[in-house]
Q: What sequence folds into this?
């Protein structure tokens, strides 16, 4: 756990923020290269990425603040709500916020919506790899108790290590999530060159990510008791409608291709 990357004068620069910046840069670079394969301008990808960034950060922060209001924000200064660099983003909130902002921009500019979402989908998975590494360095999204050789421990000021006590070894759940997202990125990048219809890659992303996220969530140990329902975390519950959305898109968009080809 190393939350501070370096200092600029007296200003601490946190690894969480650095990793988020790397996530957006890696996503933009890989999406721009992918766009060339189907003759889409890199400028279009850069423009929509700005909307995705804004929508993603706002959505992720809003969901986090509303979810953890009582435990983390009720007794804090109001300005803490905007301190994203301290950590505290909910991925599904970011996904929903980025999707709404991106779709709104694409429809507004009358751009090919599903073609561009296919370009972006693999890069979203790649960005999540950096995001989860940022979580590891920040000490958030940690795992439950673990006795395996690769278990990790945190320093005394962490929730899993009481002051003056013994650290609890936990699953490196952030690394599990990062590895699953890396696998998803490689798979989607491979599938992109073999896609049969516009929207196939984005729909596949929703389907597979919902499954992978549910797997990674089973190792999480940072959820308060009131955030677990019938043994399922909030993210696992949200994975259900995300999966169903991907399934519906897959069916509808594939049917539209068949109708258009007749």
A:
């Amino acid at each position: 756990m190393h939350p501070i990357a370096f200092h600029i004068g007296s200003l601490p620069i946190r690894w969480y923020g650095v990793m988020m910046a790397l996530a957006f840069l890696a996503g933009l670079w890989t999406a721009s290269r992918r766009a060339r394969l189907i003759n889409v301008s890199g400028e279009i990808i850069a423009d929509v990425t700005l909307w995705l960034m804004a929508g993603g950060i706002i959505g992720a922060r809003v969901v986090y603040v509303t979810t953890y209001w009582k435990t983390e924000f009720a007794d804090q200064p109001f300005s803490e709500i905007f301190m994203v660099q301290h950590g505290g983003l909910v991925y599904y909130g970011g996904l929903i916020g980025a999707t709404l902002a991106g779709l709104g921009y694409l429809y507004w500019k009358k751009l090919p919506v599903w073609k561009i979402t296919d370009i972006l989908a693999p890069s979203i998975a790649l960005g999540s790899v950096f995001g989860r590494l940022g979580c590891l360095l920040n000490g958030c999204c940690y795992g439950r108790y673990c006795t395996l050789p690769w278990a990790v421990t945190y320093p005394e000021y962490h929730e899993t290590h009481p002051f003056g006590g013994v650290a609890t070894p936990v699953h490196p759940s952030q690394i599990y999530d990062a590895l699953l997202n890396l696998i998803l990125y490689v798979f989607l990048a491979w599938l992109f060159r073999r896609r049969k219809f516009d929207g196939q890659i984005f729909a596949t992303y929703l389907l597979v990510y919902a499954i992978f996220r549910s797997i990674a969530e089973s190792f999480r140990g940072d959820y308060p008791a009131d955030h677990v329902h019938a043994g399922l975390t909030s993210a696992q519950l949200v994975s259900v409608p995300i999966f169903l959305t991907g399934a519906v898109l897959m069916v509808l968009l594939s049917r539209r291709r068949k109708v258009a080809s007749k």
The longest helix spans residues 234-261.
